[in-house]
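User: My collaborator and I are trying to settle a disagreement about how two of our proteins should look. Neither of us wants to argue from intuition anymore, so we agreed to look at predicted structures for both before our next call. Could you fold the first one, then the second, and keep them clearly separated?

Assistant: That sounds like a sensible way to settle it. I'll keep them separate. The first protein:
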Amino acid sequence: MFDALSDRFDGILGRLRGKGKLSESDVDEVLREIRLALLEADVNFEVVKGLQGRIRDRAIGEEVSQALNPAQQVVKIVQEELTTSLGGETMAITYAPKPPTVVLMAGLQGAGKTTNSAKLAQWFKKQGRNPILVGADLQRPAAVEQLRTLGAQIDVPVFSEPSDPVAVSAAALDEAKRLGRDVIICDTAGRLAIDEELMQQVRDISDTIQPHYTFLVIDAMTGQDAVNTARAFHETLELDGVILTKLDGDARGGAALSVKEVVGRPIAFASTGETLADFDQFHPDRLASRILGMGDMLSLIEKAEEAFEKDEAEAAAAKMLEGQFTLDDFLEQMQQIKKMGPIGNLLGMMPGIPKEVKDVEIGDKEVGRIEAMITSMTIEERAKPELIDGSRRTRIASGSGTSPAEVGQLIDQFKQMRKMMKQMGGFGTKRSKRKGKKGKKGRNTGGRTTPKGGKAASRHQGRVTQKGGVTAAKPDLSLPGLMEDMPESMQGLFEGLEDE
């Protein structure tokens, strides 16, 4: 969603980094381009004006003039002010001292209230809570049935009855206490546009269940209208936060940058995909970093921790370094990576990835072709890819819907990767062998030895051993395995360091 805005910021701040000193006119020129970039991204005009003013006040003051690198300081200021516009800090979710904690979901029809109610329930389950979903949308056909289907997928009970939304919401409180559920998530009805009947109904539900949190679900692709919707609901319900959906879409994303400053309520959660797992708390600082092309390593690490089992990952790493990594292991790792989400999204979280690489379409289809080729091999072929000759490649290609050339390319790349990892695992032994050979020429692992000619070193030549006995061998100061490929002059430098 923020790709276009990120590209603009990358160009603007890239030119800024190339300057050693910054004049007031340089700062004004950068701010003009930032203002245009934000307006083109459909950010609210008042938000743009406030952001621009705050950046200028800080950029032309002592904070920048006294900095060691003024250009980098301005980039830091832009990141901090952008983070502030997005909400500043991640919204902290607390729980009622006396359960259950009640959450009311509101919004227009089509924004994704029902789906995100289930996503939120799954998020609460990950926090160790026991939620219950309440189907209070009795107007949209099959809304309750949809909620029941989603609840079954995440093993969360759904309560509803064919009466009226206010009565259902009230009865849900008793049902949650009876089942021992400590979080209630109430899904309410929506309309295609804001009207008095909708507002009165959701107001009555709120008065009945007294929610601890009222979340407004907003479609991020609706642009500035999302801000107007948020303002209208806030006047009626006193919102606690916003859940922004479809952040993986191709809209300009201005709503995300506008909601907090216009409505005064933070974005609590963000939905980034269609599956129930594509949902998490909204982190303003991380999104600001991604917009400025700095990546989001924290989110990437969290996704990896969720997808990979620690023991399995360590075992796979050990097999790679020992050269015992098979195509079966490779297939398992590919499937774990798929759990982390679309590969394109993962690349966007990595800092320093070139735009050309991010723009390459890498989807499940490409990963699926690799999986198909591996699963078309026999168990023996996966363990020993060197067995795969021309006829076997043809058979594998036929079974996977690919070409023999693609199968050959996969096998060659896998062999190269395995060879490289095995070399990395064997670096230490190579180093020790090389040092053993050096010992014949007057050096050993213990330090200096008797010089050529057999005469002992004199007092003026330096002491061979310290008083009190033989010194212990010093540890290597070099990177193991890399010495063989170094020029002689560099090898001498490292060996000199060992002798000091």
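The second protein, kept apart from the first:
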Amino acid sequence: MDLIRKLHILADSAKYDVSCVSSGSSRENTPGGIGSTFSGGICHTFTTDGRCISLLKILLSNACTYDCAYCINRISNDIPRATFTPEEIVDLTINFYRRNYIEGLFLSSAVLKNPDYTMELILKTIKLLRIENRFNGYIHIKVIPGADSRLIEEAGMYADRMSVNIELPSNAGLKMLAPQKSKEAILGPMGYIRNKILENRDDIQRAKKPVYFAPAGQSTQLIVGATSDNDINILKLSEALYKQYNLKRVFYSAYVPVSNHPALPKLTKPPLLREHRLYQADWLLRFYGFRANELLTNEHPNLNPILDPKCDWAIRNLHHFPVEINKCSYNMLLRVPGIGVKSAKRIIDARKVSTLDFEDLKKLGVVLKRAQYFITCKGKYYPGIKMNEDFIKGNIVADGLKTLLKTKNISYGDYEQVSIFDLLQGNKSDLGSCVNFNNTISIGVDIWKYVYDSLTSGRESIKKQLKPLLS
């Protein structure tokens, strides 16, 4: 098979892996070498099918020996197979870099023969790049679960970032859909990489010429929608991974229907809206001081399809509001919808100089469209706002639904992003009709039932606000 045909097959197979962000690496160029990275990371542009066009994103091989039901590269699937040699990957990387097509390499692989054999090929590839070709650009590799720890340790000396895909949120899901994988085989390498990174930090401080181990850290990927796991289970898992394994990122990948396995959900499109909500919630865990059991509970185990997680939390916790913008703490500012990390810091700095009003907040970048319901300035509410639970719930839900109604279909390879218009093909006048939202985004709620029946009060006032949007 010629090299171009291999590239076509293995680049296309790599699009299902979304763990593709470089940051935190500061590998400098060396005399006579090519390429470099810096601590700010590399900017990327993503194509509609999920590939990153600033990294050469490929699989070493898609000839997998495993039979994971959710994976397009499973051994039982009838697709074209190909395998690169390490020399071919090196040649592609160097030539693409010299032509300014890429800024680095993202290298993953199916399990070829066995984990050790595959990991040896990955290690050989990056050693050829670093040592023989003196390539100092960004390299992100996938660690093969079950590979020998000595191979992982050596690979970490040449790669900028490493990741071990956890794939499914629960051990039961792994047993059902990926019986050849195990929780221990995945978490073991994660823990080993975490320990080596911590050891390396101490070594760097003592060494005259430090050798860095995975300076950009490690990440992982979770597939969303392939199992019946609720969002609360996914977020609790992510929270634990951040705390226990010091991960840089947990990536969420909406399950793309590539199999008719009886244990898989009968989806026609990837649950992209659910993936989007999980990324929003993940951001709140990492930068806003939220905990998973605050955003979701056993009574509300899934993220709201209409509202972003922060607005949804605020509506369910109105007893914390309103907050006085000139007095409340930084941590409480972060919990106000419409106020982000930068805006909160600007507010803290600005109010040291003068007392802020609503016009000042606009200048500081606060999104008052959302924040106006939850704050006061100088003891006064925003003009026209009623601090009434029914009023706030009705307006926030109406704004959320209005945003969804304006959303247009966005291409995603052979699939389209979910649009609220798909849900409105039935009888629009019957707002209480059961529209099966689960078939579209796999959240397990009826959107209209959520709008009207999940709210404890103000049902009639909400209908009045929603009716013009649906006419």
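Some points you might bring to the call about the second protein. The chain is about 40% helix and 10% strand. The CA atoms of residues 372 and 394 lie 14 Å apart.
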